[in-house]
Amino acid sequence: MTPDEFAYAADLIRTRTGFVLTRDKSYIIENRLSPVVRRHRLKDVGELIGLVRDGAENLTAELLDAMMTKDTGFFRDWKPFVHLRDETLRGFSRSRPNKRLRILCAGVSTGQEAYSAALTVLESGWFVPGWRIEILGIDLSAAALAVASRGGYTQFEVQRGLPANVLVNNFTKNLDLWVIGDAARSLVEFKAWNLLDDLSPLGCFDVVLCRNVLAYFDLSSKAAVLGKLRDGLAGDGRLYLGASETTAGVAEGFRAIDAGLAVFARA
């Protein structure tokens, strides 16, 4: 991949996804695009970028999908989910007379975080029948969302953070996959959506999980996305970021609820 090819690919990826890659990270492009090159029997990544440059929209979509980070797991960094259950959800169970709760999982990848949120709701015991629970998972990757919608995970995937009792109570084994049960699945919906686009059509949310997503964005993109998430957060809503992420010095209009767990509210 020549410097010019890298510059074109990096600019395309940044513009369309917010994912920033510096020249020293060119190996990431090479590694992630190699399967696309093999699938289409191309000579190398340079040829793929050339075809994208010439307007091959199908390859553009595959290139962008391949570049999306899909590293996720059930109950990742588990402590925020304890806070979600014991503090946020318990509070909302007492303060929502309309008995409606909406949760957004931004950058949901293959769905484990959205299903973790659903399992947290179910296991909490705070929500009696009659509540309307909606959990929306959004992501740019069509391939990841297809996995999320199927709700089936390998033994390795369920072992990453999923307690044995929760697995047994909420999943069934189907051949080589563990498939999440209807009780949790019925709470979750997935949509293809770009965080850089307008989020207002998605509506207002009581909880937003945007964890370990913004770390890949440049500062202006982080600020823009956080501003959109703030505008879509209920007045007493809660925003959960990744452990190393913060709103401080990035976007205005937030206050820390628990800075150590990266939990924030509207100021």
Secondary-structure map:
Elements: H1 3-17, H2 26-39, H3 45-53, H4 57-67, H5 79-95, E1 100-106, H6 112-124, E2 132-139, H7 142-150, E3 152-153, H8 155-159, H9 164-170, E4 171-174, E5 177-180, H10 182-185, E6 188-192, E7 205-210, H11 219-231, E8 233-241, E9 254-258, E10 263-266
Rg result: 19 Å
Tally of DSSP β-strands: 10
**Treating each run of at least 4 consecutive H or I residues as one helix, how many helices?**
11
Numbering strands along the chain, what is their spatial order in the largest sheet?
A: 6-2-1-7-8-10-9
Estimate percent helicity: 40-55%
Main sheet overview:
7 strands, mixed
Helix/strand-derived category reads alpha/beta
Uncertain stretches of 5 or more adjacent residues = none
Q: What distance separates the N and C termini?
A: 46 Å
Shape: globular
Order of helices and strands: HHHHHEHEHEHHEEHEEHEEE
Average pLDDT metric: 92
Strand residue content: 15-25%
Task: Explain how this protein is built.
The chain is α/β, with parallel strands linked by helices and 267 residues long. 44% of the residues lie in helices and 20% in strands. Strand 1, helix 6 (112-124) and strand 2 (132-139) form a beta-alpha-beta unit. Helix 5 packs across helix 6. The chain is globular.
